[in-house]
């Protein structure tokens, strides 16, 4: 079974990197962690403007006391569900950390 997996993997690499392909085989990406780290880097570089839009949306939809709702009604920009859940605030902190760290 490992032999079959190796054959399939090699055929996939050949399909993706040879001929007319957008993919470039990179020997420096040796592990899944390397691959995902590279993917994350590319996303972060290409989506800074979208991240800023999301940050502005969250800030503009916070309650008068700075609490974040679980859901926001896009028409009214008012909370549509529970306010003050920990995960909403945690995701906001993660976004801030990613943008400014």
> Could you say which structural class the secondary elements and strand pairing correspond to?
mainly alpha
Pattern of helices and strands? HHHH
Mean pLDDT: 79
Low-confidence stretches: none
Helix content: 55-70%
What coarse outline follows from CA principal-axis ratios?
elongated
Number of helices: 4
> What separation lies between the terminal Cα atoms?
44 Å
Number of domains: 2
Radius of gyration: 21 Å
Q: Largest sheet, if any?
A: none
The percentage of residues in β strands lies in under 5%
Number of strands: 0
Describe the structure.
By secondary structure, this protein is mainly alpha-helical. It has two domains: 1-46, no CATH class; 48-101, no CATH class. Helix content is 59%, strand content 0%. The protein has four helices and no strands. It has helices at 2-17, 32-46, 48-61, 86-100. The protein is elongated. The relative contact order is 0.08. The model has no long low-confidence stretch (mean pLDDT 79).
């Amino acid at each position: 079974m490992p032999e079959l997996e190796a054959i399939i993997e090699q055929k996939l690499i050949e399909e993706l990197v040879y001929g007319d392909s957008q993919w470039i085989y990179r020997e420096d990406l040796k592990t899944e962690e390397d691959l995902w780290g590279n993917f994350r880097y590319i996303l972060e570089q290409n989506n800074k403007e979208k991240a800023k839009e999301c940050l502005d949306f969250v800030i503009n939809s916070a309650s008068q006391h700075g609490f974040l709702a679980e859901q926001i009604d896009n028409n009214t920009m008012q909370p549509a569900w529970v306010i003050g859940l920990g995960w909403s605030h945690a995701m906001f902190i993660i976004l801030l950390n990613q943008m400014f760290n």
